[in-house]
């Protein structure tokens, strides 16, 4: 990340008017010593950086328009493929349902034919 993207970092120790400084003093911390049980911790606060762009925290550089368009096209193609896949699944399930319905109708017809043959023979 370049200097044009980030503000200057504060690498100096906090002064006695700082709220954090006052809280640390209340807890028994002594100025000039590190944090921790054996005072082995950092002496200065972690430097902060101010972002001056709208990119994500981990972004190093902007994508070129061609890359963005390619990514959008890939996403659109994937979405289109997913929709076609869903459509095919829907068509297949509809076909299966129709086949089952037809099979049920055939079973009912066969039952009716057997029933009529049993009770109304043709030779009567």
Automatic annotation (TrEMBL):
Annotated SMART domains? G_patch (SM00443)
Please report the stretch or stretches of sequence annotated as the G-patch domain.
Answer: 14-60
Task: Give residue spans, biased composition: Basic residues.
Answer: 86-98
Segment Disordered: which positions? 75-107
In alphabetical order, the GO MF annotations are: nucleic acid binding
One matching Pfam family is G-patch
Which InterPro entries does this UniProt record tie to the protein?
G_patch_dom, GPANK1
Tell me where the signal peptide lies.
Answer: none
**Protein's UniProt name:** G-patch domain
Q: Could you tell me which species this protein originates from?
A: Musa troglodytarum (fe'i banana)
């Amino acid at each position: 990340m370049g200097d044009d993207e980030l503000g200057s970092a504060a690498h100096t120790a906090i002064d006695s008017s700082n709220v954090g400084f006052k809280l640390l003093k209340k807890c028994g911390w002594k100025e000039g010593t590190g944090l921790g049980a054996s005072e082995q911790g950092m002496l200065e606060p972690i430097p902060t950086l101010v972002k001056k762009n709208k990119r994500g925290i981990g972004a190093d550089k902007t994508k070129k328009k061609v890359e963005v368009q390619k990514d959008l096209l890939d996403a659109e193609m994937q979405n289109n493929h997913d929709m076609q896949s869903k459509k095919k699944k829907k068509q297949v399930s509809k076909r299966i349902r129709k086949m089952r319905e037809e099979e049920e109708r055939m079973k009912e017809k066969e039952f009716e034919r057997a029933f009529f043959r049993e009770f109304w023979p043709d030779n009567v």
